[in-house]
Amino acid sequence: MPNFEITTASADDLRMMADWAHAEGWNPGLTDGQAFLAADPCGFLTGRLDGTPVSCVSVVRYGTGFGFLGFYLTRPELRGRGYGSRLWAAGTERLTGRLTGLDGVVEQQPNYRKSGFRPAWTNIRHEGLAPLDVAPPPGVTLVDVRTLPFGTVTAYDRRFFPAERDGFLAAWTTAPGRTAFAALYEGEVRGLGVLRAGRTSARIGPLYAATPEIAEALVSALAATDPATPVAVDVPDANPAAVRLAERLGLTPSFETARMYTGPAPDVDLAGLYGITSLELG
What we know:
The chain is α+β, with helices and mostly antiparallel strands. Helices cover about 25% and strands about 35% of the residues. Strands 1, 2, 3, 4, 5, 6, 7, 8, 9, 10, 11, 12 and 13 form a 13-stranded mixed sheet that branches. A hairpin with a 2-residue loop joins strand 2 (about 45-50) and strand 3. The longest helix is centred in the N-terminal third of the chain and has 13 residues, at about 10-25. The mean pLDDT is about 95.
């Protein structure tokens, strides 16, 4: 009988997991792995069949009460044989007692419901070439996030995410090939956006803003750093202003997931959430 074992993923495994995710059409960022490991080095599992990876999942712990599940994949030719479900059981055990979220693709949402997840909103990926000449509103300036005190950045992020994630955020905003802008008004952070290179389009996430005009200026400034490359934003329909902005920018819907939780949805600033950070880690 083949030997199936579950191990903590290595850095090489994370690159493989990103390749598998790309094959599914998820378009992960090219340098996401180092930020993922900073979030929770033990939060990525692989199922191995006679030593060969065949399935994977991320089960990242944030703080003491929150977790996020992602990267749930089994190699297509081996699906339906129980390798994914065994890994799922091991992964969800690691998150026992925590409110857990995930972003589920449409075809898997019935299975997630059976495991106790309930939908909170739908993320709709919008892609395309964004306008490059949108100025910030009067009094608002855009600055490189790396010039701000890091505590200011993490405090702002905490409004939109249900747990502290300082290590992840530090790596996410400074990894190679990334651009991160904050919008300031009278010295106060009123918006934040991060752009990273992807395989088929540049990904923007997170995208936070106090107003649609600030969000629009952030998208424009981020897109202008690589004008020939389309951008992609995973927009939560729980913020109708974000959906309207994506449409006004001329971005086209291309992919859909559901944000789902094992309990009540966390109390975050949905009105200021214009794009989620990552399908894999929330």
